[in-house]
Amino acid sequence: MSKITLLVVDDVPANLSVLSDSLSNAGFKVLVAQDGKRAIKKAEHVQPDLILLDIMMPEMDGFETCRILKSQPTTQNIPIIFMTALTDTLDKVKGFSLGASDYITKPIQHEEVLARINTHLKLCKLQQELQKHTLELEKRNLELEAFARTVAHDLKNPLNLIINYTEEVLETCPLGTPIDEEATQQLSKVVQSGQKMINIIEALLLLAGVSKQENIPTQVLDMGKIITQVIEHRLAHLFTHHQVHIEFPSHWPAAVGYAPWLEEVWANYLSNALKYGGNPPHITLGADVQPNDKIRFWIKDNGLGLSPTAQAQLFTPFTRLHQSRAEGHGLGLSIVQQIIEKLGGEVGIESQLNQGSLFYFTLPTHSTQPT
User: How far is CA 368 from CA 111, 170, 218, 231, in A?
Assistant: First the structure.
């Protein structure tokens, strides 16, 4: 096992000799330099594990030497401990601001020097191990994401084939004989189950994508248009089936967000209001400006309401609103929370048993959008 290498920098030969002998006897490999320029060259060439650097040196003092070492990629991660007779707090603060790890005061106490060296060597080793583990984790996450997307793609193709073939069989059997009622029901369940599996896959991919995406292209939203798109193109069958009565505000205040994600938010909130609302569902939508430069958008239903215990579990993945009332994979509200928090807002619910529920989310106002 190779020895730990230290670089000691001091313009006084006697100081170098004493400190070098002491550290060598403690088991370190010691290199020396008598000025800042030679210290920088040695550090670049040898890459010592730690540098002991005197501050008061002619031509280039320790502060400038430290600044240069910390500005270069090859030496910036080497811990530096200042050796100084200076006791002014401002000088110590200046050293730390330049990237020094610690300082020791002259005259040097060798036990203190050893203690500080060993402490910072351990800290440096821990930091290197943490960086290594972080890089490995990032690599594994990328591999897992790539694998998940491949699996999702491979699953969706055969599921779509199953759905398509089953729908064809539902129309006529291969010999042209009508399918009996029981078989029709069974095949309909196959189609529904396949579609649910596709929905789960797409929800998981969306959840993963939201948490990872950076630099979101936000803009001022036309919330009325977004909601109309959701109702007419994504939930039209549910609105027809449930015979919904829905009320809209006369106008929507301008908020900032990302329209494709807001479609997902409203699709989840509206579909939940339809499935868990009254019979027939009565839904009211609205928005109000908050005092903290946020707009609160909300949707109120006439359902059974939720207990405080149920409310506390709502935005947890794979949790459903009512286990007995409607089927679902329970990812919707978790996706809503991820999206809104990524856009700088928050989600919540106001509900009482037998008095319906009001789900809301907040977004920044138009006036707070960065210019």
Answer: 56, 54, 12, 29
In sequence order, what are the residues at sequence separation of 6 or more whose Cβ sits closer than 8 angstroms to the Cβ of residue 272?
301, 321, 332, 333, 359
Identify the three-state secondary structure at position 18: helix
- The fold of the 5-108 domain, in CATH, is Rossmann fold (3.40.50)
Residue 314 to residue 203: CA distance in whole angstroms: 16
Tokens of 233: 């193109």
Single-letter residue type at 25: N
Q: Tell me the DSSP string of 295-353.
A: EEEEEE--S----HHHHHTTTSTT--S-TTT----S-HHHHHHHHHHHTT--EEEEE-T
Q: Domain extents for the chain?
A: 5-108, 133-212, 219-368
3-state secondary structure of 152: helix
> CA-to-CA distance for 109 and 120, rounded, in angstroms?
17
pLDDT averages per 10-residue partition of the chain, 371 residues: 86 90 92 93 94 91 93 93 78 85 86 91 89 83 68 72 74 57 75 70 68 80 94 84 89 92 91 87 94 93 89 73 48 85 92 91 77 43
CATH fold of 219-368, please?
Answer: Heat Shock Protein 90 (3.30.565)
